[in-house]
Amino acid sequence: MNNQNAEEIMEVTKKTYELIGSEFSDTRDRIWPEMEELVKKYVKKRDRVLDVGCGNGRLFEILPEVEYLGVDMSEALLRENKGKTQKLDILKLDEIIGEFDVIFCFASFNHVAGGDNRLKVLNDIFKLLKSGGIVAMTNWNMWQRGVKKSYWKSRRVGFKDVMTTWKSRDGKKEGDIYYRALTRGELKRLFKKSGFKVLENFISEGKRNIVSVGRK
């Protein structure tokens, strides 16, 4: 996928999230078990935590007493977040000032189109972390068969690149969302290329997510 196609696809995704806003937030109020496990394992009181693609802030609700910053491209979703937030595109993380102990990316990295862009995001995260800092992310396991959100049932726009269509409950709103059908192997290579030591890289119970953790 060339850079122009990647930019166009990500712009479509941005517009869809602004469109679906609050209704999408209603589907993201449940805390995944892997989120709780990662917080318990890697976050301490008074840590500086960056939540990339924070959405409505469900992560903020389960954090201990920390210095939190959530960034997201969608104003509609940020309005639901109770923590400190900033509207920011995931490709502009280099505009953030300061260093963090832990950076989370829950179901956000898989929306980054283009290999160069994915590498840029991880390189920016690496620079934002303190020495020994942790990046922890989940990405949808798009390789499952028999589920609605999968590589096999989505419109393919490239090798391992797909578009899914989101529709509102009343059928009046509709928009496309891009996903990279990431694999553990691809994530491991990206982490290592960005300078991270890979600590964990596995498919969660229920096979819903790929969970990846790296240390600077």
Any idea what the CATH superfamily is called? Vaccinia Virus protein VP39
According to DSSP, the number of beta strands is 10
Which fold does the CATH topology refer to? Answer: Rossmann fold
Q: What is the strand arrangement across the widest sheet? A: 3-2-1-4-5-10-9
Rg calc: 16 Å
Structural class: alpha/beta
Order of helices and strands: HHEEHEEHEEEEHEE
Q: What is the CATH architecture assignment?
A: 3-Layer(aba) Sandwich
Largest sheet: 7 strands, mixed
Tell me the helix content: 25-40%
Number of helices: 5
Kindly report the average pLDDT value: 91
Task: Enumerate the spans where pLDDT stays under 50 for 5 or more consecutive residues.
Answer: none
What does this molecule look like?
By secondary structure, the chain is of the alpha/beta class. It has a single domain, classed as Rossmann fold. Helices cover 29% and strands 30% of the residues. The protein is built from 5 helices and 10 strands. The strands form 2 sheets. Strands 3-2-1-4-5-10-9 form a 7-stranded mixed β-sheet, with helices on both faces. Strands 6-7-8 form a 3-stranded antiparallel β-sheet. Strand 9 and strand 10 form a beta hairpin. The longest helix has 24 residues. The chain is globular and about 45 Å long. The mean pLDDT is 91.
Features:
216 residues; alpha/beta; Rossmann fold; three-stranded antiparallel β-sheet; 5 helices; globular
Concise overview:
This protein has 216 residues and is of the alpha/beta class. Helices cover 29% and strands 30% of the residues.
Write the layout of secondary structure elements.
Blueprint: H1 3-26, H2 33-42, E1 48-52, E2 67-72, H3 75-78, E3 85-87, E4 100-106, H4 115-128, E5 129-140, E6 155-158, E7 161-167, E8 174-180, H5 184-193, E9 197-203, E10 209-215
Parallel strand pairs: 1-2, 1-4, 2-3, 4-5
Antiparallel strand pairs: 5-10, 6-7, 7-8, 9-10
